């Protein structure tokens, strides 16, 4: 298995691209496209699980040079515990959302998510995500981001409605600004160090003056923070995501911002470990948590509430990264996995609410506890999980972050702990207020509705759609995701152990010699005749 693992690494990117090509050719055959997409993502999930087992059991990352070029001259694909874990989680989420979209498309006649366009774009998006996670050099990471950008623009504007085109333009402009900053930083790094390979950059970065390192550091951090929706660069997200079709919103919320967080993690732990901006990250983390959750409390529309909570919980990940201890990094990875799954699940549940009630405004939707008790449960479980109630994974992740901060014990850490607790309580309040109004409130409670509208200072005039039947596959895929959120709690011990090992390894950067040795071991080429 270990000897075969290197051959599997390029398949993480090539299989989705091949699947996208086949899906495009089969544009008029919906069933063929569905089968191709499901099989492709299932195979990628299995491959990623195998790679995670290999790198974790063998305590050895896998480095593969594309095209046979020697490391570090060619494109290097690098799979360690972190990248393998994120590919596993991402492929599971992508598969679940795909099944949800299949049910929606079949029920709506593909008006919302045209299959001929959706499936190729979706698989290209998956390829971009996987490529970003296993990129071993900055330029390949940039390529992954650009693949994401192209595919996500197509997906976010599906249906070509006025609101989707308008928000899609904002999304593309913001993403292009981030890409330009990233590309400029890559050019400056190559000009200063003569390489874009991340391992070589980490080795040579110490040769540069601290001021130069700081400029390069802040440029990369700025570019990635836009993609991760870190405050104050998160202004674009609450308006962009809610207008997209439900499955697109779900996968964007769960994964796209996490690719930006992943890039920040790699940057902070590998490239600039000796040139930290941890205090700045702490301030930004606190602002992201508080401003995001206050935005959620002020909303009266479910998708916007979830979009603002998405922003606020990015702050927890930046918080853990800023602590910069192995325990904190491990807790950050665990919380990242938790948030990918739970946030996606909540958006899928809201998609079910929208179909059942014809709206996602909590001022309009009511009585769903009696009318749709299954949807009530599917919303409630991930909602209390995201709010951090014990014993769910949200509580475990937050407690681990607070514990790591308490061990450092500085005043700023205490402030961040208080801010994190306040954010968690307000998140729970915002989500439970929505649950109370949409599910518990009786159908004929018009007086209370008017009081709520007056209190919130809001108008119920949101976008309404006709009430539509919910195909079983949509409910089944959402139920499966809820089951995975519960599994994150049940199997928190083994998963957290893996995350702890990831945290320890990230703070011990790989050297070029180690990278070459990993490549030789993975390919079986030791340079000694007669040796395997």
What would you say this structure looks like, in words?
The chain has 532 residues and is mostly helical. 75% of the residues lie in helices and 2% in strands. The protein contains 22 helices and two strands. The chain has helices at residues 5-8, 11-25, 30-57, 81-108, 115-134, 138-156, 162-193, 198-204, 210-228, 237-240, 246-271, 278-297, 302-323, 326-357, 368-371, 373-387, 393-408, 411-440, 446-456, 472-490, 492-506, 512-523, and strands at residues 62-65, 76-79. A two-stranded antiparallel ribbon has the order 1-2. Helix 13 (302-323) packs antiparallel against helix 14.
Radius of gyration: 23 Å
Major beta sheet, specifics?
2 strands, antiparallel
Helix content: over 70%
Stretches with pLDDT under 50, minimum 5 residues: 453-463, 526-532
Classify the beta-strand content into a percent band: under 5%
Taken from the alpha-carbon principal axes, the silhouette is globular
* Main sheet: strand order: 1-2
In DSSP terms, counting alpha (H) and pi (I) runs of 4 or more, how many helices? 22
Annotation keywords:
mainly alpha; two-stranded antiparallel ribbon; 22 helices
Give a short synopsis of this structure:
This protein has helices spanning 5-8, 11-25, 30-57, 81-108, 115-134, 138-156, 162-193, 198-204, 210-228, 237-240, 246-271, 278-297, 302-323, 326-357, 368-371, 373-387, 393-408, 411-440, 446-456, 472-490, 492-506, 512-523; strands spanning 62-65, 76-79. It has 532 residues and is mainly alpha-helical. The protein has a domain at 277-490.
């Amino acid at each position: 298995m270990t000897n075969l693992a290197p051959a599997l690494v390029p398949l993480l990117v090539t299989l989705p691209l091949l699947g996208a090509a086949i899906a495009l050719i089969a544009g008029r055959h919906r069933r063929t496209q569905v089968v191709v997409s499901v099989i492709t993502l299932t195979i990628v999930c299995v491959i990623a699980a195998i790679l995670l087992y290999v790198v974790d059991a063998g305590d050895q990352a896998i480095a593969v040079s594309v095209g046979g070029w020697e490391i570090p001259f060619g494109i290097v694909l690098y799979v360690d515990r972190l990248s393998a874990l994120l590919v596993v989680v991402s492929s599971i989420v992508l598969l679940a959302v795909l099944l949800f979209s299949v049910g929606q498309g079949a029920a709506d006649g593909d008006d919302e998510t045209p299959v001929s366009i959706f499936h190729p774009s979706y698989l290209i998006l998956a390829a971009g995500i996987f490529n970003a996670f296993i990129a071993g050099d900055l330029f390949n990471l940039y390529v992954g981001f650009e693949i994401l950008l192209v595919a996500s623009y197509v997906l976010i504007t599906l249906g070509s409605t006025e609101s989707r085109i308008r928000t899609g333009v904002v999304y593309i402009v913001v993403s292009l600004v981030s890409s330009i900053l990233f590309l400029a930083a890559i050019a400056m790094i190559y000009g200063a160090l003569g390489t874009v390979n991340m391992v070589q950059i980490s080795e040579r970065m110490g040769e540069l003056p601290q001021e130069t390192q700081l400029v390069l550091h802040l440029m990369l951090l700025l570019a990635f923070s836009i993609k991760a929706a870190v405050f104050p660069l998160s202004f674009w997200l609450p308006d962009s995501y809610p207008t997209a079709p439900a499955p697109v919103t779900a996968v964007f919320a769960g994964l796209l911002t996490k690719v930006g967080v992943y890039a920040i993690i790699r940057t902070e732990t590998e490239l600039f470990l000796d040139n930290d901006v941890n205090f700045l990250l702490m301030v930004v983390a606190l602002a992201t948590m508080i401003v995001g959750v206050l935005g959620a409390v002020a909303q009266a529309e479910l998708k916007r509430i979830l979009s603002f909570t998405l922003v606020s919980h990015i702050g927890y990940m930046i918080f853990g990264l800023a602590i910069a201890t192995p325990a904190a990094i491990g807790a950050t990875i665990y919380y990242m996995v938790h948030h990918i799954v739970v946030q996606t699940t909540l958006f899928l549940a809201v998609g079910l609410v929208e179909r059942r009630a014809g709206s996602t405004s909590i001022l309009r939707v009511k009585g769903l506890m009696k009318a749709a008790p299954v949807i009530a449960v599917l919303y409630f479980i991930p909602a209390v999980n995201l709010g951090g109630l014990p014993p769910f994974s949200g509580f475990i992740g937050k407690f681990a972050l607070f514990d790591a901060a308490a061990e450092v014990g500085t005043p700023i850490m205490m402030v961040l702990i208080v801010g994190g607790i306040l954010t968690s309580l307000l998140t729970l309040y915002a989500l439970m207020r929505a649950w109370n109004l949409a599910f518990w409130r009786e159908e004929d409670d018009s007086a209370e509705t008017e009081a709520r509208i007056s209190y919130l200072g809001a108008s119920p005039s949101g976008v309404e759609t006709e009430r539509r039947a919910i195909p079983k596959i949509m409910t089944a895929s959402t139920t499966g995701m809820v089951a995975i959120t519960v599994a994150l709690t049940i199997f928190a011990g083994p998963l957290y152990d893996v995350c702890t090992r990831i945290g320890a390894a990230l703070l011990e950067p790989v050297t070029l010699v180690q990278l070459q040795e990993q490549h030789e071991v993975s390919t079986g080429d030791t340079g000694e005749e007669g040796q395997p």
